[in-house]
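Summary for the steering committee. One of the milestones for this cycle was to obtain a three-dimensional model of the protein with S-adenosylmethionine bound, which we needed before selecting residues for the alanine scan. The sequence and ligand used are listed below.
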Amino acid sequence: MHYIRLLRPAKFDASDRRRPIISLLITITTDLGDSFLYPDEPVELIVGADDAAGQSVILKTDHPYRWTAGMRVLDVKLPVKSHLRKDDVTCTIKIHPARQSRPLGVLRSDHVLPWRVASDSPASKGLIMPATVEIIKGVCSPISVRTLQLNTGSQPEDQLNLDLEEDIGESIARHIWDAGIVIASFLADSWHSSESIRKILPIEEDTFSILELGSGVGILGITLARIVERAAAVQGCTLSEAAILLTDLPEAEERARSNISIAETAVSCIHPSSSAVTLRYEDLDWDEGKHGRFGPLASARPWDLVVLSDCTYNVDSLPALVGTLSALHAANLKYPDFDKGPGTSVILATKPRHSSEQALFQLLKTDEWQYTVLESIRLPKLGEEDEQVDIYLLKKGR
Ligand SMILES: C[S@@+](CC[C@H](N)C(=O)[O-])C[C@H]1O[C@@H](n2cnc3c(N)ncnc32)[C@H](O)[C@@H]1O
């Protein structure tokens, strides 16, 4: 998958007072930022800039914004309506591939899953994640928003928009990654059948606790928070408590907490005060976790499920990561009756990037984790060979 990114916050420029512009410096890269989109055919982009009332603040232009093979950056100058001064320009800018389905700024989760995509649709060739940024009184914040529409069924109320803030500019922890998008889409697709959701999210009691490692901006944990109650209901359970804890290094904290607040607002709009879900964040460094040193929230309960996406690409950190999984299992075993249950389950999503990542499986075997592939999902990539996201179920008993 490719991502539309801003290389710096959008700028309002009124140096020519008769022709003010908003200037955007755009690139289109992979999640890792290691290659630029190199399409076989030019990709046209739609750029919208609407105020809160839905009125465009920019003039229509005749020339399309186009990304072609070999480009590294696209300098977009949006002509602002000439009567508007800097203080008047409060708007939402959405940058969207013209051939991808609307609404602008939104990626549909069903378009991420090959079995939901027609073979002649643009999505079957590879997707580009749109970007949204806000300008307030002519000033753009250093944050962009990704919107993934979770399509959990065929009715309009089954479409949940997941808005996730990420940083403009380079960062590992503060933007979303392919495996996170794919597993979020897979979960959204699974929950409406009790058989398929039971495979990935089996809920048999009225409480359920999920801990996420390396949560980044929170795409996986927040998706789970949005669907866990319905997933339980499909399996005949009503949750009285569903605790979801996102964890990562301190650099991820600000963005993760901000995304938790956005998700809580979205959930409280749908179920005012009746939700059983608590969604929280705590720092958890695997170099501490492997020694069983956890913060107060991670230590507070046993975890029915541990989840992680796109956390296995750095081979150097694999021993600490597997050590943390094993330490979480050991902490689970200290709770009375835990050993009578099925043990600790882990859902791990990964987009294999190089063969050295196979070291993960040896480490898992050494620590007596059993693993099976739940699903391998093809991820087409425009102008390049397909990639794949593998979703594993890891289990450890006593
Ligand atoms: C590629 S990002 C994936 C983020 C997110 N899971 C997603 O799918 O969008 C990897 C994440 O692992 C976290 N991470 C790396 N080393 C870590 C460590 N030693 N302890 C805790 N988290 C770590 C990074 O901060 C980052 O957020």
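Key point for the committee: The chain has two domains: 2-141, 178-396.
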